[in-house]
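#random but structural
TW: two for the price of one
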Amino acid sequence: MCLSVPMKVEEIDGPRARCTALGEERWVDLTLMADAPPKVGEYVQVHLKFAQQIVPKEDALKSYELFGEILDALDQADPA
């Protein structure tokens, strides 16, 4: 299963951006957003290392909250 994850743009270097989310850092390709590139500080939806669209900060933070709930549920279900 593949998920797209909202990530915060920390730095832009040509056609790519250094983005962070949930303690992880990735270089993301901005090619798909060439007509409307993000700015540093904005959040982008990332799938397979490609930024697809700008998302509102509130939506990104809500996604992080939901990911946390999923991980908590999985931890509680783990019998180990």
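TW: number two ↓
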Amino acid sequence: MIKHIVMWKLRDKADATEIKIRLEALNGKIPGLLKVEVGIDFLASGQSADVVLYSELESRQALEAYQTHPEHQAVVPIIKAAAIARTVVDYELP
């Protein structure tokens, strides 16, 4: 199983809700994507990201397929336009 976690700092925190809605809408639409959870930060500290995506995928191949899937690709430009920074980690569980 692959864990795919992404955090974004946004230009305008008002965009966080739209990003959350669009990412959560990917649930059940992409083969191999097992879970999508999106959180919006409430602390707003200097170290905080504004939005976090936590997702679980079946395999590395499923992660690759997710990255190029049309449903995911439709969300990418929206997030890129809203974000000023992005941090990602992908790791595999045995």
